[in-house]
Recover the amino acids of this structure.
């Protein structure tokens, strides 16, 4: 009998952590994985923010503790060099652009600004293309995006003083002196943030439709086990006997440095090792008004996958 098909939509198929799955190196036991880019799907890499918003709207899925996108977000706060912004508190009273209030990356950055740096989010002049796409906290005001182009162009022109973006701005990548990161030594700042809070932000969580899981109850655990193997393959491609990362001559040394700071199992695929970021995001979402109450993060996860030993 042929294996059932599992249609998987992965927005970042080429990243190191996803590639062993998407290139077929690791197979999902009992299923034939089909990568899809549109149309109906059985599993996908859901944004943490979108899962929270879906829960508010009454939609439930089955997530598994596989976190395929994790980035510290202090380095994704960009400022116009002439804005006078030198520290996080300087954002108060300034014009700050965001893609949307409920965007996962923006929520992480705003949560850090509020909780770790004491920024009063109600005193920031927020701008977004779709100002009230989600609910917001009391006294938060969001204006329409200024005319004059995309976020990068607006920051370069000084029509916005700062931008929080999910991706690095092109002007920053090409080292345009008119813009810079809020934190000049952003690596040190993010490492300090982790040392203080223990938070390694989670952006994407692999999620399955309830209908598919009802038809194939073994799917969540099978996909979780596959991703644990894929994570190990990705690590071996950095520090194994035949490293595949060649552009970074000391990639394995950088990995050793990260493990020394964050622990040997810093990219764990389980709930237990990820309670701090899971708790933090549900707290930030409530603080920012995206959810009317704190959501129990364990309720997102398929029970058997959430309880699977190891990680």
């Amino acid at each position: 009998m042929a294996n059932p098909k599992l249609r998987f939509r992965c927005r970042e198929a080429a990243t190191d952590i996803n590639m062993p799955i998407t290139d077929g190196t690791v197979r999902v036991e009992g299923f034939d994985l089909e990568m899809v880019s549109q149309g109906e799907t059985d599993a996908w890499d859901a944004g943490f923010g979108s899962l929270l918003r879906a829960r508010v709207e009454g939609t439930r899925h089955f997530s598994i503790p596989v976190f395929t996108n994790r980035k510290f977000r202090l380095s994704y706060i960009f400022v116009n060099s002439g804005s006078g912004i030198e520290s996080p508190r300087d954002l108060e009273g300034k014009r700050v652009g965001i893609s949307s209030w409920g965007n996962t990356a923006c929520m992480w950055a705003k949560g850090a600004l509020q909780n770790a740096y004491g920024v009063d989010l109600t005193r920031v002049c927020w701008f977004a293309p779709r100002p009230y796409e989600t609910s917001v906290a009391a006294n938060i005001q969001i204006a329409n995006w200024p005319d004059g182009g995309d976020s990068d162009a607006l920051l370069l022109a000084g029509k916005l003083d700062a931008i929080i973006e999910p991706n690095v701005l092109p002007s920053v990548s090409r080292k345009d002196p008119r813009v810079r990161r809020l934190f000049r030594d952003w690596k040190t700042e993010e490492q300090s943030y982790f040392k203080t809070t223990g938070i390694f932000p989670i952006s994407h969580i692999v999620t399955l439709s309830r209908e598919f899981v009802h038809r194939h109850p073994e799917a969540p655990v099978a996909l979780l086990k596959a991703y644990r193997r894929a994570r190990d393959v990705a690590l071996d491609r950095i520090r194994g006997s035949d490293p595949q990362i060649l552009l970074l001559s000391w990639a394995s040394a950088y990995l050793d440095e990260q493990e020394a700071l964050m622990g040997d199992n810093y990219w764990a695929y389980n709930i237990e090792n990820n309670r701090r970021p899971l708790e933090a995001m549900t707290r930030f979402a409530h603080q920012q008004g995206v959810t009317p109450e704190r959501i129990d993060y364990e309720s997102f996860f398929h029970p058997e996958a959430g309880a699977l030993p190891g990680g």
About this structure: The domain at 74-197 is CATH 3.40.190.10 (D-Maltodextrin-Binding Protein; domain 2). The longest helix spans residues 219-239. The chain is about 35% helix and 15% strand.
